[in-house]
Amino acid sequence: MSNTRQYPQTEGVFIPGNRGRLFSTVYLPAGGPAPVVIVCHGLPGIEKMIDYAHALREAGFAVVCFHYSGSWGADGTFSVGHCLEDADSVIDYVAANANSWFNTDNVFVIGHSLGGLVASYAIASRPEIKGGVVIMPANIAAHYRAALTDPAVEVDSEQLYSVEFGEWLNGFNWDVMKREAAEDASRFDLCTYGVRMADKDVLLIAGARDFLLPEAENLGLLRSQIEAQGKGKLQYLSFDTDHGMNTCRDAIKQSLIAFCRGAMD
Fold it and tell me: Beta strands 20-28 and 9-17: pairing type?
């Protein structure tokens, strides 16, 4: 495997995960080992952020886009807990390819929606991650807790997870989500990760028209917890866009690039 590329490359890779292969794409810029951005998409992954990957590559970053276990053809069954484990597998893969494709002194993670929860976990839990961007994250634990006491939320959650999401995913529905959360809901709570995230460079991005995951119940809680640590590393931006980032995409991309460049050694 050459350390230097004359032209940009796009490589399909199977990253080893705990349940088999994670179907992934690596976008490599020209040149030698490059700083890395790992992209964590949402649930079920219709928004894959591939245009973000191309923009980051054009800015000089190697980008790893992956599919969670049981999604989009990847092996195994899908669950939120599996998504967190899959992030660990991808980080391990990047570390194993240090100095060939990747400059592992500068590894960042970007996540949107459910991917924002996954990215928060990775930023807080893995020393290899220098920092990251969390875009309109999902506070899954709060959804679970609300369903325990509100029958209307339970009905809505059944429709959302079992029908709207479950048909895209292998072995996943609202009952799976509830069983996982009952075992340990803290894994799926953004506030579990805020204190440790405060030690790293973090950019939070809100959508002013995000009615699916309102800021006050999701990203806002994470923001407050990080800010309470008083370490001054948090950046925050709000864009006039919906949860799917269907407007302002170019501005969001440029913000991601500027953040990652500014946080590099």
Answer: antiparallel
pLDDT band at 41 (very low <50, low <70, confident <90, very high): very high
> In whole angstroms, what is the distance from residue 198 CA to residue 148 CA?
31
Specify the pTM.
0.96
Mean pLDDT along residues 60-86 = 97
Phi and psi dihedrals of 172, rounded to 5? Answer: -120, 140
For domain 9-263, the CATH superfamily is Alpha/Beta hydrolase fold, catalytic domain (3.40.50.1820)
Q: How far apart are CA 166 and CA 244, in angstroms?
A: 19
d(CA 128, CA 92) in angstroms, rounded, equals: 9
Confidence (pLDDT) at 1:
44
pLDDT one-digit tens code per residue, 195-239: 999 999 999 999 999 999 999 999 999 999 999 999 999 999 999
Q: In what order do the strands lie in the sheet with 234-242?
A: 9-17, 20-28, 62-66, 34-40, 102-112, 131-135, 201-209, 234-242
Q: What is the DSSP letter of 192?
A: G
Whole-angstrom distance, CA of residue 45 vs CA of residue 26: 17
- SS3 (DSSP) at 160: helix
Give the gyration radius of the chain's Cα atoms.
18
pLDDT at 162: 95
Query: Is 2 exposed, middle or buried (CB count within 10 Å of its CB: 0-12, 13-18, 19+)?
Result: exposed
